[in-house]
Design brief:
By secondary structure, this protein is an alpha/beta fold. The protein has helices at residues 18-30, 47-56, 75-88, 118-141, 163-172, 186-200, 223-228, 232-238, 248-262, 274-284, and strands at residues 7-11, 35-38, 62-65, 68-69, 93-98, 156-160, 175-178, 208-213, 215-216, 243-244, 264-270. The strands form 2 sheets. Strands 1-2-3-5-6-7-8-11 form an 8-stranded parallel β-barrel, surrounded by 7 helices. It is globular. Keywords: Flavoprotein, FMN, Monooxygenase, Oxidoreductase.
Length: 287
């Protein structure tokens, strides 16, 4: 199978004003990014609201949740919001879902929702995906005026890093973002993709693989040390793929090699590095 064309997403969550948020979305679009991706935390903009505003300010930029923790919502609430944002974005939504990052447990109390064991949360995520697909399909075929633009449903992205999540994502997702420790080496990344390839079997080539860059370049803000739980300088020294360094051409060559060898074609990056990665986006997007 021929490699997928490159796509790039910018992960952003905050802005001082509505104007600044929409300017960020337009900037990402103008620079050639495919998607504006919004995380779901209690300390950042509510993702569906933020993404609706971004979609209203742009023409082609896709918008995506990155990712909604399934324990935070009922499945029917996600399906309802999915239908609304797919419609209001003109069919530019990517629905990102997960079983809940480690820090999510401290936030779920504010949602008045239980945060179960890993097995319970994976089951909840599985149920959510199935219900969202069923509800969106029913809306498309029924008499409701609220119908999805993308058929049979918006692309579903699942964040996965372990075997059980790989099994679920390989069976149900259109896009899998590799949820790995930032310190994961190039060899470790290749091993994880190989594991996923075996689990996905014949579906592997149908899945778009995504990888999130924690930083771009060698001059990185100090807070990344706390955000990632590891010294970025050490990741640069060891050549961890979570930090992309080099000239634009060297960075493009690294991403192209990973795409050709591992199948990773969808690259996400923190919005603070939007401009730093832009020359690479210009070289690779759509190729």
């Amino acid at each position: 199978m021929n490699p997928r064309p490159f796509r790039f997403g910018a992960v952003a969550a905050l802005a001082p004003t509505a104007q600044a948020w929409q300017e960020l979305a337009r900037r990402a679009e103008d620079l050639g990014y495919s998607t504006l991706l919004a995380p779901d935390t209690m300390a950042t903009l509510e993702p569906f609201t933020a993404l609706a505003a971004a979609a209203a300010a742009t023409a082609t930029l896709r918008v995506g949740t990155f990712v909604l923790p399934a324990p935070f919502y009922t499945p029917f609430e996600i399906a309802w919001r999915t239908l609304a944002l797919d419609l209001l974005s003109g069919g530019r939504l990517e629905l990102g879902l997960g079983a809940g990052r480690p820090a999510a447990e401290t936030e779920v109390v504010h949602r008045e929702r239980p945060f179960g064991s890993p097995a319970e949360r994976i089951k909840q995520l599985s149920d959510t995906i199935h219900i969202v697909k069923e509800e969106v399909s029913a809306a498309a075929d029924g008499h409701s005026l609220l119908k999805p633009v993308q058929r049979p449903h918006p692309p579903i992205l699942v964040a996965a890093g372990g075997r059980r999540m790989f099994q679920l994502a390989a069976a149900e997702a259109d896009i899998i973002t590799l949820g790995l420790d930032p310190a994961t080496s190039e060899e470790g990344l290749a091993e994880k993709v190989a594991e996923l390839r075996v689990i996905a079997g014949s579906r592997f080539d149908d899945i778009e693989l995504s990888f999130n860059l924690s930083g771009v370049g060698t001059e990185l803000p100090d807070f990344l040390r706390y955000q990632m739980g590891v010294d970025p300088a050490e990741l640069i020294r060891t050549g961890a793929p979570s930090i992309l360094t080099g000239t634009p051409q060297e960075m493009a060559d690294k991403l192209r090699r990973r795409r050709d060898e591992l199948g990773i074609s969808y690259i996400a990056v923190n919005g603070m590095f939007l401009d730093k990665l832009a020359p690479v986006v210009e070289l690779l997007a759509g190729t």
